Amino acid sequence: MRNWSEPKKNKAHIELIPMIDVMMFLLVFFVLISLNVIPALGLKTQLPSASSAQQLKPQKKAIITLGAGDQLQLDGQPLVLDALVNTLKQQQQENQTTTIIVNSDKEVAVERLVAVMDTLRQGGFFSISIATRKQ
Hints:
The chain is an alpha/beta fold and 135 residues long. It has a domain at 60-130: 2-Layer Sandwich (Nucleotidyltransferase, domain 5), CATH 3.30.420. It has helices at 16-34, 84-91, 110-122, and strands at 60-67, 71-74, 77-78, 98-104, 128-130. One of its GO terms (molecular function) is transmembrane transporter activity.
C-alpha cells in the first residue's frame, strides 16, 4: 500500500532581517538629518566682503527695577517715577536709541507696571522689554 504523504504546509512567518535593515536605515537617516550632515533646503550664500565692515555696536540699555513697596530704581539708583523720563533723556546720547529693560517683582501690581511703561512711552521711549526668568 502506498503511503501518499500530504504536502507540507508552510506557515507564514515574518522575516526580521529586512525589517531590521529598514529600521537601521531610518535611524541613520534621522541621525544625519538632526546633525545637519544632509543639508536642509535653502540658499547657500557667501556674504560679500568690504574693507570698511564694522561689527554692530550693541544699543545702549537702561535697566529699570520695580520692587515691592513702590520702589523704583534706574540702573541700581533709587528714583521717583516723575524724574524717570528726564533722567533717561539726560543719559541718552543724540541719535541713539535706548533699549529699556524692566525688571519687575512678581508681587508688583500690573497697574504700576503699566503706569511706568506709559510714562516711558509718553517720554519718547518705545523700545521697552520686560525681563522674565526661564522656567
